[in-house]
Amino acid sequence: MKFFAKVKIEEKDYLRASNYYLKKYMGLREYILLAVLLIGGLVLYFAFEQFFILILCGITMLLMAGTITAYMITSKKSYKAEFVQRNVREWNVTFTEEEIIIETLEDNGENPYTEKRTYEQIEKVAILKDRVYIYTGVATLIYVKYDSLQEGNFIDFCEFIKKKVDPSKFKMKVKRKQYPYGR
């Protein structure tokens, strides 16, 4: 079985996929922990006039906000360096039984660059309603949208990815309900 996608690279889609990766590290548990730390700090401050926990909470919140902001800024710079400066407009992605072949069309398609990845090299996968995010490394991602598949059906493609990639690679922290994929 073989699937082929011609993916137009757009900044909003790339940043959405990049920010989705952040959910791997930031989930409900982290926000609950911050809330408990803040409530505990407020209780200790008003009950015993202790500033220590309140200060720890503030420092933790500042560090988290700074880290998230730095991640988003880095994502934007990465997009500009990878795609805008090299004049890359699309990927041609072929999914075969053994590997993923990613052809990046640089300089408006004049200089194609081909990269091959095995399914074992995939770090994380997220299957959403109308798109699939595939993370092959911390700063390396591809996405396949419902409309970008040229060969194959999107539902069959999602099932194919589920069979080829280790089930532990699908476990990402998510906030919203899981919807069936496809339209």
Q: In words, what does this structure look like?
A:
- This protein has 183 residues and is α+β, with helices and mostly antiparallel strands.
- It folds into 2 domains: 3-9 and 91-170, Roll (PH-domain like), CATH 2.30.29.30; 21-82.
- 42% of the residues lie in helices and 25% in strands.
- It is built from 4 helices and 8 strands.
- The protein has helices spanning 11-21, 28-48, 52-84, 154-164, and strands spanning 3-8, 90-95, 99-106, 111-118, 124-127, 131-135, 141-145, 149-151.
- The strands form 2 sheets. It has a 5-stranded antiparallel β-sheet, with no helix packed on it. The chain has a 3-stranded antiparallel β-sheet with strand order 5-6-7, covered by helices on one side.
- Strand 2 and strand 3 form a beta hairpin.
- Helix 1 (11-21) packs antiparallel against helix 3 (52-84) and helix 2 (28-48) packs antiparallel against helix 3.
- It is elongated and about 65 Å long.
- The model has no long low-confidence stretch (mean pLDDT 83).
